[in-house]
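Protein of interest.
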Amino acid sequence: MSNTVLDITSQIKILNSPVEIPGYNNYISTYLILGEKKALIDIGPRVSVPGRLESLKEAGIKPGEIDYIILTHIHIDHAGGTGTALKSLKNARIFVHPRGRQHLIDPTALWNASLETSPELSSKYGQFEPVPEERIVAIEDDMKVDLGKGVTLDFKMTPGHASHHVSVFESEDRVLFAGDSAGLYTSSVLRLTAPPPFRPAEYLSSIDRMIDLKPELIGYAHFGCYPDAVKRLKKTKEKVHMWFEIAQAGAKVGKTAEQVAQDIRQQDKELDYFHALGKDEFARDNYQFVLTVNGLMSAK
């Protein structure tokens, strides 16, 4: 099978087609879940959609066979390609947090917020296209979707990274699809992703809720699926406490986000990996890191 389709289990794969942005390959996971019905988790930004459709073809799946697109949240790098993808995935329905529903129908405010936060990157990701209202299903906490062949997806509200964040648990293989609710994992290093407005108490409570599921594998949106899920979730909690304490201390004495980012890098030695990154990967990770520091500094 092509290296743009990564096998996790016999029923779970990652669509890992190239993304036409320097430094963004092997960074955005779209998960394909196979039962009698078929689901995608997080289609990614608009720029990734043509590649995702090619990866589906390589996986032996026709576009019309996709029944559901599940969005962990509506940030542009997770949901930005939804409306575009639906033009090809003609039978797919969209599952999203209720707060995200109207923003998919009319993505104007969502697009403007993305441009305000990150104009250059948002332009590279591509503009949202509207999603037809009749194709959207609002997720309820603890809702379950039976895909058949023993595959059931269990939705859990996991706010913190975003108020509208949902994580998905597949109980057969005990895989947790955490979106951005448990950090990100690139270059074999776990980091936080906590853009403003970050809610640390909600974030930590959500992690506890995910730990209670006792997952064996954890699928990160950025990037990939790994064993020792509970151990990784507990490590995320430790990083929240460490980074938040440093960020709040810096904010109290008037430090900039860049200065606080340096303070965190000095105390969290795992972040030494930054020195080994190429130019494009460094720009990607440093941008995300400083955005997270801003979230930690302004959080209450």
